[in-house]
């Protein structure tokens, strides 16, 4: 399992480097927390046929998407 680490400033949002972490690796699934739920990141993953197991951040008047229950249990180990 390939692992990448990108070190950025403490004041910089992690989502800015999210796609750089998976770019060129050909994963089938990306498991992440709500901090990585940006639509741009999700669209990049979808374009590359990568399944995203990322809970959506809570926004008013927006229904929450259901995740795979078995995979969602695994997400908490990361």
Give the arrangement of secondary structure elements.
Elements: H1 18-22, E1 29-31, H2 39-47, E2 51-53, H3 69-75
Parallel strand pairs: 1-2
Structure commentary:
By secondary structure, the chain is an alpha+beta fold. 27% of the residues lie in helices and 8% in strands. It is built from 3 helices and 2 strands, in the order αβαβα. It has helices at 18-22, 39-47, 69-75, and strands at 29-31, 51-53. The protein has a two-stranded parallel sheet with strand order 1-2. The mean pLDDT is 80.
Jot down its keywords.
globular; 3 helices; 27% helix; two-stranded parallel ribbon
Q: Major sheet, described briefly?
A: 2 strands, parallel
Structural class based on helices, strands and sheet pairing: alpha+beta
State the shape: globular
Could you tell me how far the N terminus lies from the C terminus, measured between alpha carbons in angstroms? 14 Å
Strand percentage = 5-15%
Q: What pattern of helices and strands is seen along the backbone?
A: HEHEH
- For the residues shown, what is the average pLDDT? 80
Number of strands: 2
Evaluate the radius of gyration: 13 Å
Q: What percent of residues adopt helix (DSSP H or I)?
A: 25-40%
Query: So how many helices?
Result: 3
The spatial strand order of the largest sheet comes to 1-2
């Amino acid at each position: 399992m390939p692992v990448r680490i990108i070190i950025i400033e403490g004041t910089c949002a992690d989502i800015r480097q999210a796609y750089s972490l998976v770019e060129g690796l050909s994963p089938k699934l990306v498991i992440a927390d709500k901090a990585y739920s940006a639509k741009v990141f999700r669209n990049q993953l979808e374009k590359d046929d990568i399944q995203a197991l990322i809970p959506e951040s809570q926004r008013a008047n927006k229904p929450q998407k259901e995740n795979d229950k078995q995979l969602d249990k695994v997400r908490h180990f990361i």
